[in-house]
């Protein structure tokens, strides 16, 4: 049964949380936007929490607000988040807990959070934030950028074992025993992680170490650099391009747009797929030399490169690295603490929404 998102006062409480939060605090604007988005999602919550079934849960609205705080302040674990909730009046005010309300047990919070994220709530929340009128006017409807980044999985390289079990013998004593795989040929076709089977061994480029990881993807509008879509896929050589096409197909409008991206997207088939979707490819030229010393033939034609908008897109597309940088450094997703594409994808998408929210107070305060 769905819990109620209502604050109950206490007869002997003398602390007014509303008065303890200064008027100009950025979380005030963020909380208004978050609450409006949560009201729009009331029907989605009703589907996840059938009435009269079981005991009341933690209110999903409070769960989402607490998860946003965890991203805003870079809190590493749910246990630390609950400890912070016990004494921090700002946290209690933002989540919706009264001064006398007890904080949740960290294990109960985690179980309720996983149930919430399984319903694609993160993606719906991101769309609900962007759909608000004062946020929607900030977004460009014509010019976008796309990119991908590696998200290291919560699995040790020692867990990357053969699928047929031929290398599962004892490796030594102790919990973290030595694992000898020197000169052993390993690939995703014959091996997989025993800790996170959906994570894949992948390296970003030549000279880079191979890691068990996922690929995170984001679609950014170019006017203010806000993320409008995103997700997680398994790490493959075509994962970035496949995810870009999937995000473009999810757009509600089919009007012609431009799409900026780095040289990893300079592939003839991908450019063809973009043009079929009425997307003008503003892709960086991949002009590296082949083994024979000849420059690679680019799929971007000269007419596109001569257009003034091409140079603008090349400058704007680099702002998407700010999104990935904040998610990894501030929100703590450099090495994700969840396992499986579904859970990692939900956390990644929620952090995209959190990135947008921390930028909105200044954007909304700026003169039109």
Automatic annotation (TrEMBL):
The record places domain Transposase IS4-like at 200-357
InterPro entries from the entry? Transpos_IS5, Transposase_11, Transposase_InsH_N
Q: Name one GO molecular function term.
A: transposase activity
A Pfam family matched by this chain, by name?
DDE_Tnp_1
Q: Which UniProt keywords apply?
A: DNA recombination, DNA-binding, Transposition
Tell me the domain of life: Bacteria
Sequence segments annotated as region (Disordered): 162-204
What are the BP-aspect GO terms?
Answer: DNA transposition
**Signal peptide per UniProt:** none
Q: Where is the Transposase InsH N-terminal domain?
A: 16-115
Feature: compositional bias, Basic and acidic residues: 176-189
> What's its job?
Involved in the transposition of the insertion sequence IS5.
NCBIfam families, per database record: transpos_IS5_4
Could you say which protein family the record assigns here?
Answer: Belongs to the transposase 11 family.
Q: What is the protein named?
A: Transposase
Species lineage: Bacteria, Pseudomonadati, Pseudomonadota, Alphaproteobacteria, Hyphomicrobiales
